[in-house]
Specification:
Layout: H1 10-21, H2 25-32, H3 42-56, E1 63-69, E2 80-89, E3 92-102, H4 110-125, H5 131-140, H6 144-161
Parallel strand pairs: 1-3
Antiparallel strand pairs: 2-3
Helix pairs in contact: 4-5, 4-6
Length: 174
């Protein structure tokens, strides 16, 4: 029932179940995050990601593509993906980094998008989800762990009730 929160302790899970039972989880999220971000096109997403990347990783490899991906559907495995492709072209080795963010994040609060982007950017330097990776995430976004939890709450809301944010405004679409 709480697949996105299964690794949290029983007390937290009970509190979330209570919010679901009383149908107040959405209200809690909307109270803290009433507005959605403006980065709804692939170009604006690319610019947003590059701004964060250039602030924290000026010397890292360039990113060739950033886009919203409608094919990322299994949210248990990924909210976004990063790929690193090396190809030989005319005797030279060409490397490309791509970041794809689930299309579900087109209409969420900016902090939720920032958490996903932070996660994918951290993979430019750290490939594994280890201590160094999460340290880098919190360097980029100090509230990373809190935002990750709140994104999990949002995904739980989506599973139980459907959309929380409409495409054009920050009102509930129940």
């Amino acid at each position: 029932m709480l697949k996105y929160l299964s690794h949290y302790n029983q007390e937290i899970q009970s509190q979330v179940l209570s919010l679901i039972d009383t149908e107040t989880l959405g209200e809690r999220l909307l109270l803290k995050y009433p507005d959605t971000h403006p980065y709804t096109t692939d170009k604006s997403l690319y610019d947003y990601v590059m701004e964060i990347k250039n602030t924290h990783f000026r010397s890292s490899a360039p990113i060739s593509k950033v886009l919203y991906d409608t094919k990322i559907r299994d949210l248990n495995s990924a909210l976004g993906t990063h790929t690193f492709v090396s190809r030989v072209q005319g005797g030279k080795l060409k490397a490309k980094n791509e970041i794809r963010i689930s299309h579900l994040f087109k209409k969420v609060p900016e902090p939720f998008l920032r958490m996903i982007v932070t996660h994918e950017l951290a993979h430019l330097k750290e490939k594994n989800h280890d201590k160094a990776f999460y340290k880098l995430c919190t360097h980029i976004e100090p509230q990373y762990h809190q935002l990750e939890f709140e994104v999990r709450l949002y995904l739980t809301y989506l599973d139980h009730f459907g959309e929380l944010y409409s495409r054009t405004s920050s009102t509930k679409t129940s």
